[in-house]
Amino acid sequence: MPCRRLANRQNETCDPMIERRILLAAGATLLLGRALPAAAQPVDTARAASFIQATGRELVTAINSGSSVTQRRDQVANILRRAVDVEGVGRFILGRYWRLATPEEQAQYMRLFEETLIRNLSARFGEYQGVRFSLGRSQQRTEDDALVNTIVERPNLAPFSLDWRVSEVGGQPRVVDVIAEGTSLRLTTRSEYSAVISRNGGRVSALLDAMRNQVAQLAAREGR
Amino acid sequence: MRLPLPSRHLLPAAFAAGILLAGCATMPPPDDKDALEEFRATNDPAEPFNRAMYDVHQAIDTAVLRPVAVAYRAVVPPPVRTGVSNVLGNLRSPVILMNDALQGETERFGITLGRFMINSTIGVGGIFDVASRFGLVPHTEDFGQTFAVAGVEEGPYLFIPILGPSNPRDLLGFAAGIAADPFTWLTFGNRDLLDALNYARAGATVVSTRESLLDTLDDVQRTSLDPYATLRSAYRQQRAREIANTGSGATAVAPQGLGTGLGNSAPDAGQP
């Protein structure tokens, strides 16, 4: 099956040997990755920066395109879904409560989290009409993520600094955090969610209710 | 010259009473390690009291601060608002300068001194931030940060109406900043004028700051499931960054153009 898919996409004849070799290589990479966590590929800063540059260019084009607000928001949402490691960020934010949640709650949380994150971010970016975006200094931070600094400029407003934390996820660079003027989105949201849970007797379901409510409100405001 | 004990201890006593009245946050059971760790990391043992103070602040904000800031933004054109914010920033220079010195930051001391001299003269009393155009980028510094650099712990989180998020260390730093500010004491030979100027400056600072936070705080209220917790976390992160003096943001080194050709003229950096 994978052979046919590969052949279809690339419009080539399918060589079983080549396919086996690819599979072997993939398997070896996986095994190595498991066996040698210390050898985890550190994100190349240049690669991270060019990923952010490309994503940023896509975002700016979508935001400044002449299309309607709804269209712009959808475009932005699609770009973000591809660029952000939604699952990793979601787990990080739920923190210790991830283990306390039932599998069903975990699944619901992920669905709601993606919805909330994408809606909030695309609503915010969607407002940035006339935005300009430039790459600042880029620096390596830890073993496996890089921090890419960008400057966001909007007409008549003071420019602000936006840092993107980029990590290698499944061999692809992905955004794992956005830091606006020193405030990390995932740290702030983690403390927000954990406050909601702990103020409701440690029930994850209380957070899910609050998130469901919020998604409904956001949807009502956006009229979709 | 010693003050009688009661008034000297009035502020802490009032806080203590408030905390006692409102009750403290309940410690998690000692066998729940994760919960204990979270309680410690949140560093908000007086949470019920702080949340009550936050509600007081929100009431004042909804009734007065926010509407005034909205009106200020609607009525006063952007260049004038930038000018106001620049003047207020320039007035803070002496205190920033002292703290640069106390922290042994010679380069930043030079920048602050240069900014103050250029902006007070060529910048017409600080209205125009000419120094930024000469590459002297503004930064903030206060006694709370200096205490932190000296190794003073922040203490438990506090929320003070109108002042916002704080902690004992930063609150003490705030008071020290006012006491050490020459503009607090410069009388021009007229005591009433001094009082009037100080009130005007305090008022302008509150309005200008609230205006600059309009979008951010509206966003927090709109998107956060618990704005109190969001602000608490954001404050701690911001302070950590300010204390570490890492990257003051907007004017980074040689930005590479990545815009969409919407004109090259960057708006004037209008930070306070």
Give the helix/strand layout.
The complex is a heterodimer of chains A (224) and B (272).
Chain A: H1 2-10, H2 16-35, H3 45-64, H4 69-83, H5 86-94, H6 97-100, H7 103-126, E1 132-140, E2 145-153, E3 160-169, E4 172-180, E5 183-184, H8 185-198, H9 204-222
Antiparallel strand pairs in A: 1-2, 2-3, 3-4, 4-5
Helix pairs in contact in A: 3-4, 4-7, 5-7, 5-8, 7-9
Chain B: H1 5-8, H2 10-22, H3 33-42, H4 47-75, H5 78-91, H6 93-102, H7 106-121, H8 130-133, H9 143-149, E1 158-160, E2 164-166, H10 168-180, H11 182-185, H12 191-212, H13 214-223, H14 227-244
Helix pairs in contact in B: 2-4, 4-12, 5-12, 6-7, 9-10, 9-14
How would you describe this structure to a colleague?
- The complex is a heterodimer of chains A (224) and B (272).
- Chain A is globular, with a radius of gyration of 20 Å.
- Chain A has a five-stranded antiparallel β-sheet.
- Chain A contains nine helices and five strands; from the N terminus they run αααααααβββββαα.
- Helices cover 60% and strands 17% of the residues of chain A.
- Chain A is α+β, with helices and mostly antiparallel strands.
- Chain A has helices spanning 2-10, 16-35, 45-64, 69-83, 86-94, 97-100, 103-126, 185-198, 204-222; strands at residues 132-140, 145-153, 160-169, 172-180, 183-184.
- Chain B has 272 residues and is mainly α.
- Helices cover 64% and strands 2% of the residues of chain B.
- Chain B has a two-stranded antiparallel sheet.
- In chain B, strand 1 and strand 2 (164-166) form a beta hairpin.
- Chain B is globular and about 65 Å long.
- Residues 1-11 and 248-272 of chain B have low confidence and may be disordered.
- The A-B interface holds A 53, 56-57, 60-61, 64, 96, 120, 124, 130, 132-137, 149-151, 153, 155-161, 181-184, 187-196, 198-199, 202, 207, 210-211, 214 and B 34-35, 38, 42, 78, 219, 223-226, 228-230, 232-234, 237-238, 240-242, 247, 249-253, 255-260, 262, 266-267, 269-271.
Keywords:
heterodimer; A: 224 residues; alpha+beta; five-stranded antiparallel beta sheet; 9 helices; globular; disordered N terminus; B: 272 residues; mainly alpha; two-stranded antiparallel ribbon; 14 helices; 2 strands; 64% helix; 2% strand; disordered C terminus
